[in-house]
Amino acid sequence: MVAFVGYYRVSTREQGKSGLGLEAQSTAVRAHLCPSDSLEGEFTEIESGSVAVRPQLSAALDLCRKRKAVLLIARLDRLARNVRFISQLMESGVDFIAVDMPTANKLTLHIIAAIAEHERDLISQRTKAALDAAKRRGVKLGNPNIAKVHWQGTRRRMERADAFARKTHPMIRAIQLSGASTYAAVAAALNSAAVPTQRLKSWTSAGVRNVVMRAERSLSNSP
Length: 223
Fold this sequence. Notes:
By secondary structure, the protein is an alpha/beta fold. Helix content is 58%, strand content 11%. The protein has a four-stranded parallel β-sheet with strand order 2-1-3-4, with helices on both faces. α4 links the parallel β3 (70-73) and β4 (96-98). α4 packs antiparallel against α5 (106-136) and α7 (183-192) crosses α8 (205-220). The chain is globular and about 65 Å long.
């Protein structure tokens, strides 16, 4: 017999009032239980994913420690997009299972969260830096030199693709080490974790293979 504590989260108060998403999460958690398992408690958080303070999570973790239970969540993306949240979970000493990706571990989650957060910061920084540099050069943003911009755009796209591959490669390796033996299995794990590709689309086995090859080529060419 295994003791579990269910944890559910939705992003808005309107969703919390309507039950939108919560019923599906609860159904998934309960479907995961074996007849001999016990559900010691259920906790619902109505907060944005960016909010660090989560009293219902703290209560759920306290109950897990008291009952020696496993934290059970329906979807990995309820956890995987905030590094502070993952750090709190890792420091708690409580094990967890995500129903949609049961082989995921704390390392996998931390890598996913770190990459997602870092990518958001980089996009903001690159946009601001590009605009500032253009203004310093006296570039009129509405009237670019088409040929020059095309060449620079191609180079920047390649650089961004290389950077994305290098950042994503450790997460892919962690997923492979957790039991995903094919590119298709890795793609399914990334999609289950709601991790987008560089173009914000779903992963395919070909996409995973291309990222791995690009990362390995980029790393081998590094000084």
